[in-house]
Amino acid sequence: MPSVTTKSEKRHRVELTSSIQYLKGIGPVKAEALKQIGVQTVEDLLYYVPRKYLDRSTILPIGKLQEGIVATVIGRVEASGIKRVRRPRKPQFHVILRDDTGYIRLVWFNNWKWAPKLFEENDLVVASGMVNVYGGYQMTHPEFEIISKKSEEDISGDDLIHTGRIIPLYPSTAELKRVWLDSRGFRRVLKPLLKEVPELICETLPEKVLTQENLSSLAYAIREIHFPEDTKSAEEARTRLAFDELFYLELMLALRKQKIHREEGIAFNKPGDLVRTLLKTLPFQLTEAQRKVLREITKDMMSKNSMHRLLQGDVGSGKTIVALFAMLIAVENSYQAALMAPTEILAEQHHITIHKLLESLGVKIALLTSSVTGPDRKGVLQNIRDGTAQVVIGTHALLQENVEFERLGLVVIDEQHRFGVLQRAQMKKKGASPDILVMTATPIPRSLALTVYGDLDVSVIDSLPPGRKPAKTSVWTESSKTEMYQLVEGELKKGHQAYIVYPLVEESEKADLKAATESYELLKENIFPNRRLALLHGRIKSKERETIMQTFRKGEYDILVATTVIEVGVDVPNAAVMVIEHAERFGLSQLHQLRGRIGRGADQSYCLLATNYPMSEEAKMRLQAMTATNDGFKISEIDLKLRGPGEFFGTRQHGLPELQIADIIADARLLYQARDWAFRVIQEDPKLNQTENQCIRSTFLRKYKKKFSLVDIG
Ligand code: ADP
Ligand code: MG
Fold it and tell me: Rounded to whole angstroms, how far apart are CA atoms 303 and 265?
């Protein structure tokens, strides 16, 4: 860091990497506040873009206002102060705003402690909100912004910064506002800085990308994003910057994919007798979709490069059997295969189904979960170590250090969205460059998939096995419960089985369990006295749990009352009804997963969503979505809209990068274009050595490498 001391030097030494502290108008205090939001260098500041713009051409003269419209007005503060009225008793805060055509009262009924200090006579204020008329125009709790203070002398001159036709509004926090970095503060700092932009900014995209995609130059974009000429140039600027961000994100993925593909892996021989025999003994034919993905997987496995493939398919699409074939290929080549599932119940189920299918083929299978203990565990670990166990099925327990494989050739991870990035990497390390197949039922919009799984190859099972009828879904209230249980009884009479699911929320696990247990007793004694019921939850010992599941599978229980332990993967085709109690408490993807437990046989199935009030608006929308569609893809899109990408993916562990400007969903088109370019560039110039790509190389190393390093998957 060059030492910057004198004022005259300051102006000339500004570089993108300079600390903002040395900029005009930013001292240590502001610098510290900005640091808190990740803005440390001049470059960071330039990329701190407005959250929206105020277009003055949409501002109404106060005299033109009408009752009931939502409007934006601009005016000077004529008076402001605390107002005591008789009813309601609480003091209010009023601001009178005047322009050439009239005045309007801004009113705050509560939470206005900050206000008296803020407004001064003659401040120029813009306010938006619903217009009411109470002896004059009035807005209550308007959105507002102080555009300039009376204390700033030259309101007419320099202040055009703040009052051009399009006024940028910056995201700010209470902390920032305290050090005068509200929108106005940002505008004051940025305006002079932007004068230097042409010299500071070096272009980050090659000429041909700019021309072919019709993008503006970076210098133009940075200037216009802050102080746009008009709304069109603001939009152009945003597009250019969003493209940049997406391009570098995809570039990182392209680089990673390239690295993975170069990695030497195992070249398996083509499928042999085991695979052929299983195909013949299978009680059903593979669907065309299953055969297609199996071909893709086989091809990967036979290639000498290691496989990193995602198998995506909605709940019930038949992913397990595909994985099983892949595992057999490994076994035929004298390698071990491992299948990791997120819950014990699912691992146990996989163990049972796979055991049934492979028994006659003489393939040795082992199950390892944390419930396998004592001498059993010792034996299993030994079998895994010496290679006796050819197919190993388990939970997170497989990740433990003392689990050593003799010759691990294939890792399958079921319901991969339940695992973190590190866990997948850990599993891979259990072998010498084993092939990896990750499976998920969480269908996500394509643009998101390209980001989150952007460095994996993707196979999709896009149709369900034949003869499946989508479950009929309906919502029930407390008052209609009797009727709902009658519907369940009707299905039981036909020889079907039912699930009744209770929520289990971690914070109150104990209370939830109690509720589930009590309801179970109630159901058993009062509602279904002649039926065979069982209760299943996570606290029940594994041996007992296995017995319960087995008995249910055999049809010897009519109703399985369960917590969400059955959410993922459980497969009992004769179960045709599912009641989800307190359905309003479940997330959308969880509801869809749960519903995926039924509709696995040929008969019509029913998903009954039992609800209790009060219910949030969002909960209503979730239930509405559930009744509207069975399509996992549509469900996930709605889910994404309701929750936003961050929440949707749970946490950062799933590798969704934080983008500052681009929006993966809204900018999907831009993403595809950026991805095409990024992958093409890397294909043509894998090391970014060509002259025309130097700007990419340096930008990536300087700006994006660190930022995106968290993005990892598979
Ligand atoms: P998921 O993709 O949700 O993991 P599963 O692998 O559990 O789905 O399969 C769901 C059910 O469909 C299982 O009972 C399985 O035996 C059955 N199944 C799988 N493939 C076919 C097929 N081609 N034809 C008929 N049933 C199938
Ligand atoms: Mg499954």
Answer: 8
